[in-house]
Specification:
With about 350 residues, the protein is an alpha/beta fold. It contains 14 helices and 8 strands. Strands 1, 2, 3, 4, 5, 6, 7 and 8 form an 8-stranded mixed β-sheet that branches. The protein is globular. Keywords: Hydrolase, Lipid degradation, Lipid metabolism. Belongs to the patatin family. It comes from Chryseobacterium kimseyorum.
Length: about 350
């Protein structure tokens, strides 16, 4: 049966930035979207049943993986509340650094700033032996191969067709290996190939453009077994929702950095690289969608709240800061309900 252009549904993409504990902001916004889906469409609605591809870098990849976990009926297993609980309850043990470690190892100058063992234990406890190919929908998770000096992108739709299949817990560990915070990691594919990886946020802290490029390759009608979705969709066929972990507005003094040297640049350079590439991706996608017709121009959403009183640090797990991150997310929702409700209605219309 031939599907008319009018009957076709948009391919819906969700892209989630990196940002450590600031991923709480992402979870708060996604929780509002999920609650509205439950109110307007189905009481048991979960985000994984509405997005056709979910992309993430670092902390965003962890959230993406939670969203894409399947239950026994190949429906989304977890509500986004699960992600919020993981950050609020486990965040302190994952990101906390003792006073003594801070004293002898400021900024992670002598070894990684945070112990990897707690993170790895939590990933094993949560994901167990779940494999990449078992994800509910296509994904795009970023990391960087330091030995071969190239991006390593994990996608689930291709994992079952190739040798590129991994345990989800290992992928999450790899994409979270932010230099000076966590050490690099070696992970092994299900076929025994070894990769030496660090955080994908080094080149794609905002992975929305990577998600777009990945979506262009995917035969969604075949993968999702529904011909209302386009195979190899163009930008005209997509809705992209890109969520950041808070706008970083910290400025750096010209005089202080003018003669800072290598040591003085350690902290600023990582911060600047991550925020600058996120802003560049937003600019590029804005320009792409501006070339479309009036209706389709509005199918790209970049959501990146002000941090308000929250710390920009990726590892500040003080209870007061976690509360400030939650408040930053809630404040954004209060000011942008109309836009968020538009997203909800589009997700309902384009669900299969």
């Amino acid at each position: 049966m031939k599907i008319t252009k009018k009957a076709m549904k948009k391919v819906t993409l969700l892209s989630l930035d990196g940002g450590g504990i600031r991923g709480i902001i992402t979870c708060i916004i996604l929780r509002y979207i999920e609650e509205q889906l439950q109110h307007h469409d189905h009481p048991n609605a979960k985000l994984g049943d509405y997005f056709d591809l979910v992309a993430g870098s670092s902390t965003g990849a962890l959230i993406a993986s939670i969203i894409l976990c399947p239950d026994e009926n190949r429906k989304a297993k977890h509500s986004i509340q699960k992600g919020l609980e993981l950050y609020a309850e486990k965040g302190e043990s994952i990101f906390q650094v003792s006073f003594w470690e801070r004293l002898i190892n400021p900024y992670g100058l002598f070894n990684e700033k945070i112990s990897q063992s707690v993170l790895e234990k939590n990933l094993i406890d949560f994901f167990g032996n779940l494999e990449l190919k078992e994800f509910l929908k296509p994904c795009l998770i970023t990391s960087y191969d330091i030995e071969n000096r190239r991006a390593k992108l994990f996608n689930s739709w291709n994992a079952g067709l190739s040798t590129d299949n991994f345990y989800v817990r290992d992928i999450c560990r790899a994409t979270s290996a932010a230099p000076t915070y966590f050490s690099p990691v070696q992970i092994k594919s299900m076929y025994g190939q070894i990769f030496s990886l660090i955080d994908g946020g080094m080149y794609a802290n905002n992975p929305a453009l990577c998600a777009y490029a990945e979506a262009r390759k995917i035969p969604f009608a075949e993968v999702l077994k529904n011909h209302q979705k386009a195979n190899h969709p163009t930008v005209n066929d997509m809705i992209i929702v890109s969520i950041g972990t808070g706008i970083e507005s910290k400025s750096y003094s010209f005089k202080k950095l003018q003669k800072a040297g290598k040591l003085g640049w350690v902290s600023p350079i990582i911060d600047i690289l991550m925020s600058a590439n996120a802003e560049t991706v937003d600019y590029q996608l804005c320009q792409m969608f501006q070339t479309l017709g009036q209706r389709n121009q509005k199918n790209y959403y970049r959501i990146n709240p002000s941090l308000k009183n929250a710390s920009p640090a990726m590892d500040n797990v003080r209870r007061s800061n976690i509360e400030n991150l939650i408040q930053a997310g809630l404040s954004y929702i209060d000011d942008n309900r109309e836009v968020l409700n538009q997203i909800v209605q589009k997700l309902i219309r384009n669900k299969i």
